[in-house]
Design brief:
Elements (H helix, E strand, L loop, with lengths): L4 E8 L2 E7 L4 E4 L1 E4 L11 H5 L6 E5 H6 L3 H6 L3 H5 L4 E5 L2 H5 L5 E3 L4 E4 L6 E4 L1 H11 L3 E3 L11 H27 L18 E6 L5 H14 L3 E4 L8 H11 L9 E3 L5 H9 L4 E4 L1 H7 L2 E4 L2 E4 L19 H5 L2 H9 L3 H27 L3 H15 L5
Parallel strand pairs: 4-14, 5-6, 6-10, 10-11, 11-12, 12-13, 13-14
Antiparallel strand pairs: 1-2, 2-3, 7-8, 8-9, 15-16
Helix pairs in contact: 6-7, 7-8, 8-9, 10-14, 10-15, 11-14, 13-14
The structure holds one RNA strand of 72 nucleotides.
RNA sequence: UCCGCAGUAGCUCAAUGGCAGAGCAUUCGGCUGUUAACCGAAGGGUUGUAGGUUCGAGCCCUACCUGCGGAG
């Protein structure tokens, strides 16, 4: 029996819609998954994610939760779902990306990564096996393999070595993952009778930076091992946009047709539109929440900076086309005041709006694909942003 | 009225007699599998006023102005 089920429901060129069933929720793809690193989507209540935003899946992070509050505490609370009360799907990142962003705090070997905590400098070790064990304790519904994510500019040779290491780690991840599924370690396990196993799902990660042939090699190695879904890692790590779009155009259509394709850590609204066009189904990104906290808001006419003084006497909403509860009630002027005053509500409200914008954009994306007009939708969406670039929106 | 202390960027304060600075605020920019309610940049000065000493004064001297404290 499978841990997840994913079926294509419509196609338009390389773009597709689908229904992803995990043991905890039904998710329409393409989907944007809000990032909830430390067991919370920063500044946003689960009630709002569930009710108004109709969000079916969020992220969590192995690295952060491992360091704080720690696996023992989460075990004592019988897993992250019970601990946090988020009962819909959760995907956990393996910690690979975080550890590698620590730079001088880490040391890499074949076995794994020795690193120092950014919180207190304490020494820790993370390996494919340990990452799988932690993610089992967290009880997440989709587990990511432990990968190496090098910076985009390391050069071909280093990229090749890295993707091969990632492939070996992927095999080790899967081996340990399989053991954990049958020994009771998975604290999120459910007994289901809807055709799903109730176990965790495991996604592999394709690396290879901007080199198309290395990307294909990484895909080959990863697909050979076999996973429930396939992720594209190592993009939006400082490379130029055309490089990312080039990789997506070439790689996404090559990826297994019958499994969800997940572009990790991306991105801006236009990135999502482009990636869907090439056949990507899942996304996550900190942009809506981080930018929300730092005062910038997304609108159908482009990004605005609520910190700008010109908004101070504006009694209109962030986006006149937006139907979210923030736009229904609060003005740009008031939101700017809250932000300037350092009020935490500013972060909460703008994060909420930004997530609403991303979720609504993806809803429109799905609708356009189903109606066979995604090409036109994409053209119009990007033209709208280009037209308004640099203008007051 | 006398004595003392203080007066430097919008605010709070630095600066051996030797290039007048910081933090906050303001304005603007950035943010892509969150080390991020964060990071960066810019604007902003007749150093209370008027004289004096000195090669050179925010700093030393004199007077005045303003504020605070004390005495009467």
């Amino acid at each position: 029996m499978k841990a997840i089920d994913w079926k294509v429901t419509a196609r338009d060129g390389n773009a597709r819609t689908g229904i992803l069933r995990t043991r905890r929720s039904v998710i329409e793809t393409p989907v944007f998954m809000p990032v909830g690193t430390q067991g919370t989507v920063k500044g946003v209540r689960f009630e709002w994610l569930e009710d108004e935003l109709d969000c079916r899946i969020i992220l969590g992070n192995t690295y952060h939760l491992f360091l704080r509050p720690g696996v023992d505490l989460i075990k004592a609370h019988r897993g992250l779902h019970k601990f946090s009360t988020w009962s819909r799907s959760r995907l956990t990142d393996s910690g690979g990306f975080q550890v590698f962003s620590l730079n001088d705090l880490r040391k890499l070997t074949e076995e794994g990564v020795q690193f120092k905590s950014h919180l207190d400098g304490s020494a820790h070790f993370l390996s494919p096996e340990i990452s799988m064990e932690i993610q089992a304790s967290l009880g997440s519904d989709i587990v990511m393999v432990f990968d190496e994510c090098p910076p985009g500019d390391v050069g071909r040779e280093a990229t090749e070595k890295s993707l091969e290491l990632t492939a070996r780690w992927a095999a080790r991840s899967k081996r340990r993952f399989s053991e954990l599924q049958s020994d009771g370690s998975d604290l999120g396990r459910l007994d289901l009778n809807d055709g799903l196993s109730g176990a965790q799902a495991l996604f592999g990660i394709i690396q290879g930076a901007g080199h198309l042939d290395l990307r294909r090699r990484s895909l080959e190695l990863t697909a050979e091992i076999g996973f429930d879904g396939y992720a594209i890692g190592g993009l939006s790590v400082g490379e130029e946009k055309p490089i990312m779009y080039g990789v997506l155009e070439d790689l996404a259509p090559q990826m297994p047709e019958s499994a969800p394709r997940y572009l990790m850590g991306v991105g801006t609204p236009e990135d999502l539109i482009e990636a869907v066009y090439h056949g990507v189904d899942m996304f996550d990104c900190v942009i809506p929440t981080r930018n929300g906290r730092t005062g910038s808001a997304f609108t159908s006419r482009g990004k605005i900076n609520l910190r700008n003084a010109k908004h101070s006497d504006d009694d209109g909403p962030i986006d006149t086309d937006c139907r979210c509860s923030v736009c229904a009630r609060y003005s740009r002027g008031y939101l700017r005041h809250l932000h300037q005053a350092g009020e935490m509500l500013a972060a909460t409200l703008v994060s909420h709006h930004n997530l609403a914008f991303f979720m609504e954009t993806m809803r429109q994306v799905r609708e356009a694909i189903k109606e066979g007009r995604y090409g036109a939708f994409r053209t119009e969406f990007l033209a709208q942003l280009k037209e308004n670039a640099g203008l007051d929106v």
